[in-house]
Design brief:
Layout: E1 7-11, E2 14-20, E3 23-27, H1 38-83, H2 89-112
Antiparallel strand pairs: 1-2, 2-3
Length: 113
Amino acid sequence: METRPLEVIFQRDKAYGVRNTGGYLCFMRKVSHYTGQDERYKAEIKETNDFARLIANAPQTLKQRDGLLTALKELVGCLSKEQGHYPNKGYFRLVSSYRKSAEQAIADCEVKC
């Protein structure tokens, strides 16, 4: 299933919502401006805009994560084969360490992502 590209809609330099060609997926919260709170207001506007961009980029980020997981799994397979052909113990430990690190990264990402 192909996803429709997401776009952040801005009104007066503030993120209003995130939508695709089918309509709005979400609306961003309104940031209120009060006298004497310029810095807070600017920080909240930036945070809201950044969050809207994060939502809009989520499908692409997930595709990149899936590509990274596939590459890590291929690396584990190659390193597992390579471990059987080590020329010395130092090389074996190095390859073993790389394999374990890659396996841990895969496990962490599958649990946390």
